[in-house]
């Protein structure tokens, strides 16, 4: 038996082998440091070779722990395995942090839009790395995924010193964010299988619980649109909000465009004769959107402010668009008493009014441009005239409410 103490250092290292377990020993260094080792043979016949590996330092491992570990190694070796090689491979195995880096470099930045990449980077930094970053990709289990998602749901992912915890406030979490992290992890593990970092069919997210989400369907009713119109008029009179930001909010209210689509719109993208805007790169790809007369008037009203900036809703920086409407929209919605309304809810409003006016879902889908390519093809047989009528009627209804806010006649400034 290898004793727990009593080894004296010598000029050279030496090994005392255990009397009860062949292949298990303790190496003593000239410094007095002792390490438990195991020696075994790999292969058979003339190809057999001897392997000697360290199990751990005395003190960190007790003699009984080291002996139990050695017995496991010797059993694996007797079954034809090489435990030392397996340990070395596991040491070199990629971590979740490395998977995150490769996902961003070899997938996200090549195939996703910048805004989506930014969201992925934020979820990786805020949630995945703090919770799973040091884990080996091949070792992550469904139970670990469930625990991590529960932490994200509770807003406890980031350490107190994280820059996103400014002022010590609550972390952003909840079912929605947890589900976004779940979807991101699922894609990353799918790619890990493709890159041979995990066995096929082993995605641990597959059986991880998904949080139920309650859709937030908010749309403005007639009276709320009137209050919004009044707030826009007041801001225009006082100059509290720039003409470009006011124009962008009116444009979004009348068209239901996505914020990113509106802010990226250039003067050269608009055909003023045909009332059509060409978006070279939207969330769903290049597309044409038909603009109602009320929205065209918003653009014409901005024309006197036009400078060398190619963007319709120009930002403060030269040749750059507005980058954020959150500040202006916060002031407008507070003035209108609509603090619960998001900019995206203006898009819901256009859709809801279209439904109320009994337009078909395909027509409304084309108005909003939220269809995939295959779905859009199903609507190819629809004539432009019904679409033109739809955008005009819906915008006219919205413009009527906006105009009534200040008592000004429809169609006048």
- Secondary-structure element pattern, one letter each: EEEEHHHHHHHHHEEEHHHHHH
Parts with pLDDT < 50 across at least 5 consecutive residues: 163-171, 372-383
The CATH superfamily of the largest domain bears the name: Intergrase catalytic core
- The CATH topology of the largest domain is hpI Integrase, Chain A
Instruction: Please give the share of residues in helix.
Output: 40-55%
List the strand order in the largest sheet.
Answer: 1-2-3-4
Briefly summarize what is shown.
By secondary structure, this protein is α+β, with helices and mostly antiparallel strands. It contains 15 helices and 7 strands.
Written account of the structure:
The chain contains 15 helices and seven strands. It has 413 residues and is an alpha+beta fold. The strands form two sheets. A four-stranded antiparallel β-sheet has the order 1-2-3-4, with helices on one face.
């Amino acid at each position: 038996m290898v004793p727990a103490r009593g080894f004296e250092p010598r000029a050279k290292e030496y090994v005392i082998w255990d009397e009860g377990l062949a292949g298990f020993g303790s190496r003593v260094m000239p410094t007095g440091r002792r390490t438990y080792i195991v020696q075994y043979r790999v292969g058979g016949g003339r190809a057999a070779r001897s392997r000697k590996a360290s199990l751990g330092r005395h003190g960190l491992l007790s003699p009984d722990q080291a002996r139990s570990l050695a017995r496991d190694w010797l059993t694996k070796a007797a079954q034809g395995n090489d435990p030392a090689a397996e340990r070395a491979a596991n040491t070199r195995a990629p971590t979740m942090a490395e998977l995150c880096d490769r996902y961003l470099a070899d997938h996200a930045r090549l195939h996703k839009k910048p805004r989506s990449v930014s969201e992925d980077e934020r979820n990786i930094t805020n949630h995945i790395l703090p919770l799973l970053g040091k884990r080996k990709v091949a070792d992550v289990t469904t139970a670990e995924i469930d625990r991590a998602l529960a932490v994200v749901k509770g807003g406890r992912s980031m350490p107190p010193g994280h820059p996103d915890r400014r002022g010590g406030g609550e972390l952003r979490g909840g079912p929605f964010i947890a589900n976004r992290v779940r979807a991101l992890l699922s894609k990353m593990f799918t790619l890990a299988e493709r890159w041979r970092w995990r066995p096929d069919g082993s995605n641990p997210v597959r059986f991880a619980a998904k949080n139920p989400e309650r859709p937030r369907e908010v749309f403005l009713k007639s009276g709320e649109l009137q209050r919004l119109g009044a707030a826009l008029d007041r801001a225009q009179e006082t100059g509290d909000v720039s003409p470009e930001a006011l124009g962008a909010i009116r444009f979004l209210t009348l068209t239901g465009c996505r914020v990113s689509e509106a802010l990226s719109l250039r003067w050269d993208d608009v055909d003023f004769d045909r009332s059509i805007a060409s978006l070279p790169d939207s969330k769903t790809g290049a597309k044409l959107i038909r603009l109602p007369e009320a929205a065209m008037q918003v653009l014409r009203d901005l024309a006197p402010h036009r400078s060398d900036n190619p963007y319709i809703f120009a930002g403060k920086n030269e040749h750059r668009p507005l980058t954020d409407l959150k500040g202006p929209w916060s002031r407008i919605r507070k003035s209108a008493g609509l603090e619960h309304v998001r900019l995206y809810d203006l898009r819901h409003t256009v859709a809801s009014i279209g439904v109320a006016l009994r337009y078909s879902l395909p027509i409304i889908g084309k108005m909003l441009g939220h269809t995939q390519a295959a779905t859009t093809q199903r609507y190819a047989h629809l004539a432009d005239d019904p679409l033109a009528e739809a955008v005009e009627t819906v915008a006219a209804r919205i413009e009527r409410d906006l105009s009534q806010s200040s008592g000004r006649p429809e169609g006048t400034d």
